[in-house]
Amino acid sequence: MSSSAPPSDGVDHVDERLLRTTPLKKLLARPELGSVVGAFAVFVFFAVVADSFLNPSSLGTVLYAASTIGIMAVPVALLMIGGEFDLSAGVLVTSSALVSSMFSYQMTANVWVGVGVSLLVTLAIGVFNGFMLTRTKLPSFIITLGTFLMLTGLNLGLTKLISGTVSTKSIADMEGFPSARKLFASEATIGGVEFKVTILWWFGLVALATWILLRTRFGNWIFAVGGGADAARAVGVPVHRTKIGLYMAVAFCAWISGQHLLFSFDVVQSGEGVGNELIYIIAAVIGGCLITGGYGSAIGSAVGALIFGMTSKGIVYAEWNPDWFKFFLGAMLLLATLLNAWIRKRVEATK
After folding, report:
1. Which of 266, 286, 270 is nearest to 278 (CA)?
2. Which Pfam families match (predicted)?
3. Cα end-to-end distance, the chain, whole Å
4. Residues 118-157: pLDDT tens digits?
5. Sign of torsion over alpha carbons 137, 139, 142, 144
6. Using CA atoms, how far apart are residues 51 and 116, in angstroms rounded to an integer?
7. Can you give the pTM of this predicted structure?
């Protein structure tokens, strides 16, 4: 590309990447701005209506609730920035836990062997989703809906076939269980407040995803394929590899969440996870990710998950009927989407 050729319309065009902008405009252009405003509003609201919401012990509870959503919201946000969805993400968490538990129990192996096998199986399912998407050219909605249904059936059918019930056998007394539990489901008390290890996993994944998006070539590829796959391919971006890699990232985080599920409760119910995929997607949307792709951030997904955590626990602390949770969920989704659209329109108008 060259900037030496004069513009054909006589207007003095300047590359927008070279334009100087104010810190305020940079702030307004951040994808997570709307979700940060929303999170502050939710915090103030429950601080007023629920006395126990501000108790130190509530901090660990809220962060734990947010982390269980946030671990999956991070890769789902990256996938949405890349222009795709994964409707199998929720069930894949349960599948990962079931594979670990049943392999360890049936083979009477160290539970770490089951954990390793589960990682390979879960990543293979991510590759399957990405491969089917790039080979068939079908929408990711159709591909991952098929995977969702197949995994739902496999989880129930294989668990009943092998265990005779809808849940797995306990592996709490097997070799390797204490060390695995320490990595995936331990807790620590700091200043009298109990924090779960999932919070560390969540913060680490957000930091890693932010670094990938903003500082690496793969991050540029994600934005490029989400903004327009054909244009990205024309400038040399490996579109297929990028999308398969994003589905593997979803699978890897599903494996982490699945191991937390297993080592928190010793057993796994085969019907768990259905519907959680929508919560992960909503957290990413509330965090500023565009459904059309090419725009969003990992930090925004973390703020979206935090809003979920504050709302779900805030309703409990306020002693309200939890049936209202879905109402708040829908209202937050609409408000966050409208706020993000308004901010983007304001930013584009001031360019």
Report:
1. 286
2. BPD_transp_2
3. 23
4. 999 999 999 999 999 999 989 999 999 999 999 999 999 9
5. positive
6. 45
7. 0.88
